[in-house]
Amino acid sequence: MTIDLRDLEGLETPLYYYDMRLLQQTIDEITTCMSGYPYSTHYAVKANCNPEILKTIAGAGFGADCVSGGEVRAALEAGFPASEISYAGVGKTDAEIRYGIEEGIGSFNAESVEELEIIAEIARKCGRKANVVFRINPDIDAHTHHYITTGIAENKFGIDMRRLDDAIKVVTDNPELNFIGLHFHIGSQITNMEPFELLCDRILQLQAKVEKAGLKVKVINVGGGLGIDYDFPDMHPISDFRHYFEVFKRRLPLRSGQRLLCELGRSLVGQCGSLITRVIYVKRGVEKQFLIVDGGMSDLLRPALYGAHHAIENISAQARGEREQDRYDVVGPICESADVFSKSELMLKSRRGDFVAFRSGGAYGESMASNYNMRNHPGTYYRY
Question: What is the pLDDT of residues 271-294, one digit of tens each?
Answer without folding.
Answer: 999 999 999 999 998 899 999 999
